[in-house]
Amino acid sequence: MANVEIDEDLVRSLLREQCPDLAGLPLRQVTAGWDNQVWRLGGDLAVRLPRTPRAPSLLRKEHQWLPVLAPRLPLAVPTPVRMAEPSARFPQPWMVTTWIPGEPGDRATISRGQEAADSLAGFLGALHQAAPTGAPTNPSRGVPLRTLTHEFDRNVQALASNDAAEARAVWEDAVSAPRWEGPPVWLHADLHPANVVVSGGTIAGVIDFGELCAGDPATDLAVAWLLLPTDASSRFLDAYPHADDATVRRARGWAVLRSLSLVGIGQAWDKGLPGGQPTWGLAGRTALERVLASSRPPTDEFRRRPRS
């Protein structure tokens, strides 16, 4: 990425240049996301500007596919409104999307867990439809878990020995589960607390579709432990239409992998390293506790017989 300082004057000038009808709306920075800096524009819109080398291609992917998917999704998503092209002021594309009111899930509490479980199950049931030929793929999402064993082995080293042993047992069970035999389905592929919007104690929307791809739905079902309160996970898996035994086992593996990633990003923040996020470490540790608890004997409330 070019070394361009993104401030209010720049964002306002970009709007005047390419979206003059929106340039007079109130503007304020709300967050620096993983790949994009986000500014709230008026009451109903957001401006997203790339801050990593990969961000422009992710924005273009969202611009292409989200308008196709959004109409069938029962939760609000940041639907693209304008796609702006690179210019002398800013050498990357940027995008205006709809704004979803609420707080990111890593900074808010889900107090209405059963309702949130039903909402997420409905959302993923609607999203997880067979993807068309030409849908994007992702080398680290929606793929067979065994291809990511090196990532797991690297990240699990950060855990204490007892937790590491439990995490490895869950991972090995997930890797040995039967593979997804259905067609590749649409995936959000990055469902963790910071990528959902919470309002009134439940889930109001889902954001950041940069990892959108086609593949194994178990990738997204990890949200049962990554996000939902413990007493809502089984409700979610009961409400989702395709949570058979093998899929749930793979979903646990994805949950362990994503939890470890969140823990690592939190540790980077604690050490003052690039890429750290202040709230992600706690989110990762909490999620890891949930998924490990769900796999402990004598009861395993999430393991179930394949559905007919």
Written description of the protein model:
With 308 residues, the protein is an alpha+beta fold. Helices cover 39% and strands 15% of the residues. The protein is built from ten helices and ten strands. The strands form three sheets. A five-stranded antiparallel beta sheet has the order 1-2-3-5-4, sandwiched between helices. β8 and β9 form a beta hairpin. α4 crosses α9 (245-270), α5 (161-176) packs antiparallel against α9 and α9 (245-270) runs antiparallel to α10 (280-294).
Describe the structure concisely.
The chain has 308 residues and is α+β, with helices and mostly antiparallel strands. 39% of the residues lie in helices and 15% in strands. The protein has a 5-stranded antiparallel beta sheet, with helices on both faces. Strands 6-8-9 form a 3-stranded antiparallel beta sheet.
Q: Indicate the proportion of strand residues.
A: 5-15%
Helices and strands, in order, run as: HEEEHEEEHHHEEEEHHHHH
Sheet with most strands: 5 strands, antiparallel
Q: Widest sheet: strand order?
A: 1-2-3-5-4
Amino-to-carboxy terminus distance: 50 Å
Question: In terms of structural class, how would the helical and strand content be classed?
Answer: alpha+beta
What keywords describe this structure?
308 residues; disordered C terminus; five-stranded antiparallel sheet; alpha+beta; globular; three-stranded antiparallel sheet
Annotate the secondary structure layout:
Elements: H1 8-18, E1 27-32, E2 36-41, E3 45-50, H2 55-69, E4 80-84, E5 94-98, E6 103-104, H3 113-127, H4 149-156, H5 161-176, E7 185-187, E8 196-199, E9 202-206, E10 213-215, H6 218-221, H7 223-226, H8 233-239, H9 245-270, H10 280-294
Antiparallel strand pairs: 1-2, 2-3, 3-5, 4-5, 6-8, 7-10, 8-9
